[in-house]
Structure formats: C-alpha cells, structure tokens
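Example record

Each entry pairs one chain with its bound ligand, copper (II) ion.
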Amino acid sequence: MKKLAFVLWAALATVLVACGGAAEPEAVPAVELSLTATDIAYDMNHIEVMAGQTIKLTLHNKGALEHDFSIMEVPHTGEVMAEEAEHGADGHEMTMDPEVHIAAPIGDSRSIEFTPSQPGEYEFFCTVEGHKEAGMVGTLVVTAP
Ligand SMILES: [Cu+2]
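Structure tokens for the complex follow.
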C-alpha cells in the first residue's frame, strides 16, 4: 500500500511539473527592467541578463510617437507574455513578426515577460519605420548562468 501511495504521489508530481511552465525550477530570480522610449531613442541600449532568468520589462513611452521593444528571434523557455502588444491608432502596420514584441502607446507603459534560455547577443529594436535606423536599437546580452 505504501508503494502505491508513492507511485500516485510521483505521478501527481509529474503532472504538476508538466502543467505549469512556471513550475520549472527557477535557477535565477526574475529581473525587472524599465526601458524608456523617447523620440527617437531608448534610455538603455545594453541589457544584460542570465540565461534562464525571466525578464519583466516595462516599456515607458515618453515620446510623441508610438514605440515598441522587439526582438526578432531569441531562444526562450515558456511563453512570451505581453500586455496588449498591439500597436495603436497611429496606423503603424507590422510588416514583421518578432518573437518578442511590446508596443507602448504615447504617454503610456506596457509590460512583457520572457525567459531567454541561451547565452548570446540578441538585437532589440523599435519596429516603427525609421526608428531603428534613428537609433532605437540595442543589444540584449544573455550570459551563461
Ligand atoms: Cu520607436
């Protein structure tokens, strides 16, 4: 009987681990980042985190134009959770499909959460036309844990 109880417990534990993406053991605590966008720049062009570290990034738009934070491709675990990632009324149409994307309306803030899983350097930028070229670009450096 004891053995059966253990088997059930083990099965339950497996189910719990399998269900919650957040149930994965978190090696490193999440990091909260604040990125401010103005016309036309970010206040940070270099972000450094550890692989496996969840990034909770809040983009504050203090400009008179719409801005976003995007990464075309970055290996990550779990889902990218964006708070209202869509662009607003400025008619900006996304012609690309970045894996990580959060747009902040003028004078507002929006957050995104994701967990890069592999060390490397990943470019982040604003997808609004001409903004990357004007300097809204930076590097997310993911270091080995
Ligand atoms: Cu922009």
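Helices lie at 2-19.
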